Fold these 2 entries.
Entry 1:
Amino acid sequence: MASATSSTVDTAAVGDGIHLPDTARDLVKILVTGPFGWARPP
Amino acid sequence: MGKTTLIGSVSEIRPLHTEEQLTEASAQVDDLAGVRDKSTTTVAIDFGRISLPGGIVLYLFGTPGQERFRPLWDDIAYGALGALVLVDARRIDASFDVLGLVEETGLPYAVAFNTFPDAPRHHTPEQLRAALDLEPATPMVTCDAREPNSSIDALLALVQHLIDHRPAEHR
Amino acid sequence: MTSRAAGDTAWVLEPVLEVPHVVAAVLLTRDGLVTGYTDALSQPSAERVAAITSTVQGACRTAAAAFADTDRAEIRQVVIESDHGYVLIVPTDHGTCVAAYGDPEVRLDLLAHRVHSQVARLGEKAMAAGPRGADDDTPA
C-alpha cells in the first residue's frame, strides 16, 4: 500500500520556486510512542 | 520497541531517524532483558508521512524511548492529535509510564501490541486490556511493526478512534 | 576549577575550563549518558545536559543530512547562541561528545580551538587503547 518513493501530498507553486502545501487535505500529527524508559527491576 | 521500525515500514517519504549506538554504560541503566538485537536508540525523533484513503495525511513523530529523554516530550507532543502506543506484551509494566504520560497530555490513543512470532501468548486480549487499565473505547490491536499492512492497520484503528471521538474530551 | 569525572576524563575537561568565560563542560556518550562534568554543574544537571546534548547533536546530524537530501552526515560542531551565552558541541568519532558552555563574553574561536584539540587528543587515546574490553575487566 505505502509506496516508498511516491509523494502524494499536493503542493501549489506560487512562483519563484516557492511551494506551499495544499491545505485542502487534513494534515494530522500523530505520535508513535512506546515503553518510556526500560524500568530497572526492583 | 518498534517505533522506529514502524515509521520506517509505513512512511511514503524517506523516513527521518536520529539513532545513536547504545553504549555499555547505557546497558547498565537501561534494562534490556529480553531485547536481543537492540543496539541503537532514538535520541530525538523519528519522522515519516503516510497518506490515508479519504484525504488524511498523517505526519508520524516517533518519540525517544529512554527515560532520560522525557524532557523532550512536551515539544514533540505539541500539536499532535493522537498517539499510537506500542506495547510489548512480555513487559506490560514497562508501558505504564508512557500510557500515563499520553493520558496526562490529553491525547486520544490506540494501543498496539508488538507481536513476535516466537513469543508465547501469555494473555488473552481481555487480560491485556485489564492489565493496562484501558478505557473500553481505547482501540487495542496487535501489530508487527516490520509489516507495512499490519502497521497501517494499527494507524487506521487510531484514526478511526480520533474520528469517533472528535472533539477531544477535556478532563 | 576542578572537574568531577568518571575515570580519567578530568584531563579532557579541565583544559576547556581554562578558556576565559567558560562556565561548564561535559563529556557524554552519544546516546545521552554523562561520563564527566565540571564543578559548576550538579550531577542531576549534568545528566540533563548529557541527555539533551545527545538529542541536539543527533537532531543536527539528521538536519544536515536532510538539507543535503541524503541519509548520513557527520557533524563537525554545533554552536548554540542564546541569551545565556554559547554552547559548543563537538562529537568524537568513537561515540562520545564534548560540550562546553561559555557566558556571552566567551571567545568562540578560542573555545572551539581548545575543544577540538581535546577531541583530537581523545581520538588519539581511543586509537592507542586497542580493542574494546582490553582495559575494562568485567566481573565474571
Note: Residues 1-42 of chain A form one domain.
Entry 2:
Amino acid sequence: MRALSCYGVLSVVVALSLCKSAAADDTAGGFLDGFKLGGYSSAYLNVHPGGKSEASLEELSFLLRWEGEGRWRFFAELEQEKPVSWKSGQGMTNDGAKIDLERFYFDYNISEQYNLRAGRFLTPAGRWNLIHAAPLVWTTTRPLATSRLFPQSINGVMLYGAKPFDNRAFEYTFFMEALEDQHLDGDEIQYRDSHGARFAFTGKLNLGLTLMEFTEDIPGTPQFRMAGADFMVKHNDWEFSGEGYQRYYSNNRDGGSGAYVQAVAPLGNRWFAVGRLENFKRPAEGSAERWVVGAAWRMQPNRVLKLEYVGGDEERADAPKGFFTSFAILF
Amino acid sequence: MLSRSAKLQYRDRLTMRVLRQRMGVFALSCALLLCMGQPLAAPADTLAVVVPKTQGGKIGSLVDLSLIYWRKKLYWSEGVRMQPVNLPTDSPQRRQFSQRVLGSLPEAQAEYWNEVYYHGTTPPHVVSSQEAVLRYVADTPGGIGYVDACKVDARVKAVAWLLGDGSFTTSPPPLNCSP
C-alpha cells in the first residue's frame, strides 16, 4: 500500500509539473499545452447517535484532462481516499488510506451527435452517481439507492451524444462492460457483465431513464435487470430532485429497490436548507429508510460547508446516522 | 393467527406504503413551491451569432446553440472542436444571451459548470469586450461567439440572430444601426 501511495503521489507530482492550472488560458498550443489539472477535496465529521464520533480528510482527488485540436480527448481522476482519519477512542490513523483510479478514459468524436468513450468511467445511472463529488452535492451523506444497487463505475465502452428535440435536448448513452473490476474496497459489491442505456431530456426540467442488466459476482447469483428514473428541476435557487430504481432477478422476482426525493430551498446569504427522504431494500440486507435535514453554505461557487442530521431506521455500517458536517472545495 | 414472518411482511408492506405516501406529499409540496416566482425579463437588442469566415456547419435552432454553450456539443460537423466564447457576466449582451439561450442568468449556472468541470470540460472562454469576441472568433478555428448585431464586420460570419423580441432566426434581419 505504501509503495502504491508513493507511485500515486509521484504521478500527481509529475502531472503537476507537466500541466498548467485549470484556470489557465485555453488557447491552443503544443501537445503538453492540451493538459489541464484540477481536483477537489473534502473533510467531514460524524457524531453518531450514541455519542461516538469520527472525522477524516475524506479524499484528495486530482482531475487531469487533455484535449488537442483533433477529435480525441482524455480524462482521468486519481483519488487519494481517507489520507487521514480520526475515531473517538482510537485517535488518528491512516489505515483507510488508499489510492484509487476513479476514472480513466479516452473520448473520440465520431460525428456531431455520436461520441465514443473507452476506459473506466462512472456508470451513467441516474444523476447522483455522475456528480457524486463532495463539492457538487448538497449533503455529506449519499442516498443508499445510488450506491448499493448498481455498479458505480464500469471498465468498458460507451456511445453517447446529445441532439435537439423539440425545445429541449435529448441525451443518450449506451454502455457495456469490457473488463471486470480488478480492485474492490472492503464492503464494495463486485459486479460483472454490466450493460445498459440511459436516456435524458434536459432543459428546465431534467428527466432521465436508466435501463441496465448486470450480475452481482456472488456464486449462484442470477442476473439482475434494473429500471431507474430520475428528475431534477431548478428555479430561482430552489431545486427538487429524485431518483428511483427497481431491480428484478432474471426470473422476475423482486431484486431490490430504492428511491430518494430531495428539496433545496434558498435561505439567503448563500445558505440553503436541504431535506431528503429515502428508502432502500436489498436482498439479504433488508430495508432501510432514512431522512436528512440540514443546511449548506455555498460561500463560493467552488466551496461548500454542509451541516445535516440523518435519522431513520437503525444505524448500519453503510447507512450511518447522526450529525454530519463537511467542507468541500473544487479547484 | 398470523405467523411471525407474515407479520413482518405485513409490517414491511405497511411501512413502504406510508413512505410512498410521504414521498408523494413531499413531491407535491415541492411542485407547488416551484410555481412561485417569475423569470426575469430580457433586454431587447438584436444579437448576432458569429463564426470564422471559413467555418462550415450550421446552427439550426436555439436548442442547437444552447447545446454548444452548455458544452454538450463539442465539435462542428467536419470534426473541428467548437471554441465558444463568452462576454463577462455583467455584460448586457452576455446576460441577454444567457437568459434567452440558456434559460438562466450566469450567476445561476455556477453549479452546472462545476459539474461539467468535474467531467473534464471547461466552460466557454471569456473575453472582455465585443471587439475581443470578434478578434477571438476571427482568429480561432472552430470559434463561435455573439455580439450586438450592429458590431458584426467582415472579419467574421454571422450565422444566426437573436432578435429583440426573443425570437431566433438564421435569416439576416433588418437592422437599424446608427453610425
Note: Confidence is low (pLDDT under 50) at residues 30-43 of chain B.
